[in-house]
Design a protein that fits this description.
alpha+beta, single chain, six-stranded mixed β-sheet, five-stranded antiparallel β-sheet
């Protein structure tokens, strides 16, 4: 396996932030680390990057134990939430900065920086200052600067959190395009479920420093392994203490013997969420907002529970 995290534990005094975490990442995979605030996501990323000393555990990259190596000695590159770009440098100078510390000529550094400038589609922005770029463009520069040194692993620490909703969607698609184009092993930390599900090959779900589940987005959503995953990922209806169903598995059926009264209607843009009572439980039904059907509060409808 390309990257292995073995029995990683991090404690601050009596407080355990990450608890005996083990997982593997094959070469070329984009793994999203997802979980609520304070679950240990960034701690995992910082440990892999070498910015945080583990209490116990091992990190093995491409067959080499890098647990005790300094960040500069690891073939790992990190894009932080703040980007950390140099405002006094041009875009091209920012991208090529990491190459200054390698035995590469100035002309070769510039040529390589230009190569990655094209990769992130900023060909005509090389001589601009960072202050002249939009948030999305700055994010691309930060990404190119991390990739130009050709790391074995790229770490992304909530890199889209400073962008507006529309730009976040555009940039996660761009990150996925670039990651796939160069087959870069990538770990992407986020608290945004939609982001994780749209961009990842697999998702690692943490809670209170413990691994809850790891798998493809489809597996995580459709086959949760415990109560936490059911309740954290997406929306869920609880029919009883042991039966969970998704809102989209409830469908209207005028011929059904199950009749319910709509209590509340919540329009979520492209979808509509309907609330109703059934056998003492408050349930929700999710339908497309396509103009073909719409139920009103107080209306009695038939439903099927799939």
């Amino acid at each position: 396996m390309f990257l292995q995290i073995e029995n990683f534990t991090k404690k601050y005094g009596d407080i355990t932030v990450v608890d005996n975490l083990s997982f593997e990442v094959p070469q070329g995979e984009l793994l999203c680390v997802l979980g609520p605030s304070g679950c240990g996501k960034t701690t995992v990323l910082r440990a892999i990057g070498g910015f945080l000393e583990m209490t116990s555990g091992k990190i093995i990259l491409d067959g080499e134990d890098i647990t005790e190596l300094d960040p500069s000695e690891r073939q790992v590159s990190t894009v932080f939430q703040s980007y950390g770009l140099f405002p006094h440098m041009t875009v091209l100078e920012n991208i090529g900065y990491g190459l200054k510390f390698r035995d590469i000529s100035a002309s070769a550094r510039k040529e390589k920086a230009m190569e990655y400038l094209k990769l992130v589609k900023l060909d005509n922005h090389g001589e601009k200052k960072i202050s002249e770029l939009s948030g999305g463009q700055q994010q691309r520069v930060a990404l190119a600067r991390s990739l130009v040194i050709e790391p074995k692993v790229l770490l992304l620490d909530e890199p889209l959190s400073n962008l507006d909703a529309k730009l976040r969607v555009e940039m996660r698609e761009e990150i996925r395009r670039i990651q796939s184009a160069i087959n870069m092993t990538t770990i992407f930390v986020t608290h945004d479920q939609e982001e994780a599900f749209s961009i990842s090959d697999r998702i690692l779900l943490l809670n209170k420093g413990k691994l809850q589940q790891i798998g493809t987005p489809e597996t995580i959503y459709n086959h949760p392994t415990n109560d936490f995953v059911w309740n954290f990922v997406g929306r869920v209806n609880i029919l009883d203490r042991e039966q969970y169903i998704r809102p989209e598995t409830i469908i209207p059926n005028p011929k059904s013997d199950i009749k319910v009264r709509i209590n509340k209607v919540e329009i979520l843009g492209s979808t509509i969420l309907y609330y109703f009572e059934h056998e003492g439980n408050t349930l929700t039904m999710l339908r497309l907002n396509d103009g073909k059907e719409k139920f009103m509060p107080g209306e009695i409808i038939g439903i099927d529970i799939l």
